[in-house]
Amino acid sequence: MAPRPPRPHRFDLCAALAGLLGGLLLWGVGLPTRPADEPYVLLDGRWPVLLPLAVMAGCEALRRTLPRTALLIGVAALTLDSVTQGSLVTVVMFSDLVYAAVVYGPPATARRVPWITGLLTVAGTVVPLAIWQVPEMLLIGVVIGLVALMPAATGWIVRNHRDAAEAARLRAEQTTLLAEMDRAQAVTAERARMARELHDMVANHLSAIAIHSTAALSLDDPTTSRDALAVIRENSVKGLAEMRRLIGILREGDNEPAATPTLEGLPALVEGARANGLDVSLDAAHGQVPAPVELAAYRIVQESLTNALKHAGPGRVTVKLAQQDSSLTVAVTSPYGDREGPSAPGSGAGLVGMRERAALLGGSFEAGPLEDPGSADGKIWAVRATLPVTEGDPA
Question: Residue 316: which CATH number?
Fold first, then answer.
């Protein structure tokens, strides 16, 4: 099915109608551009003027939808008008067609029309003067420049400004889109960071509460229940304090600096794990490390102890930190096997959070079972993270 031709613009239709009526008005009052006795007026009389006028008005209606076609037909109409007594309105509408061809036409047409009109202006100035050698012949080039070159040059300037404005608009839209993408990525990264912090701070305490509350409910022993309730209360208080700290960080307008866990707090963390029933040994040999590395190492040890509390079998859990020249290695091992007694369910978010923390610092993270002949089941669960302590070092 053939596509429908574009409909003329309303302004172009109004311009064409105004031009036609204006030309008819000049024709009616008898105001041609040339007298009938000039030698190059081949079609004398008043009526031949109307044909190029009507054709030029029709081209004016197509100045925006078909600018190149309108200009080509307009050239033919202007040529026909030049052998009649002529109409000033026909010449004015032709100038508008030249302007419209540059502004609304294809890029190739917009580039070529100013060059062609410029060459015609030069030829119209030089050739008649060289042939007739009369100074008045210079007026031919002036007329061609006014009718063709000036509208083409004006159209080229307008088109350049329009293209520059469109390019600026596109750049603004792209900048807005990139800013929105950056904002969305920042929000996603912040939500992931909040999720890691919330999980690492609260999961340890809630896991201990779940395990000891299950033990208190399953054993009919007042002493055991009292000890379990003491552990539950301690972890509840600590978990509430951690939640308040996180809320303080997130609360709008809270400018108080929040204490960030450091490696100096590892002994207290291990003591808390021992109070929850884990047999933990700590070997921390490290020097001064950047604050982000300290926080990541602390959270990895904290989450590893939480997983050991929830899933590890009976036996010793070892925590070891070793610093080399360019990296800090965190290694946590625990017995591999089913836990005796009550346990807490896991979601796998802890391993994801530890891996994300290591990746954000350019480090590496591994977690999984390893063969260990010295253990009861022949396997241990090992967590190992290597965190660079100097910027730019490879993981």
Answer: 3.30.565.10
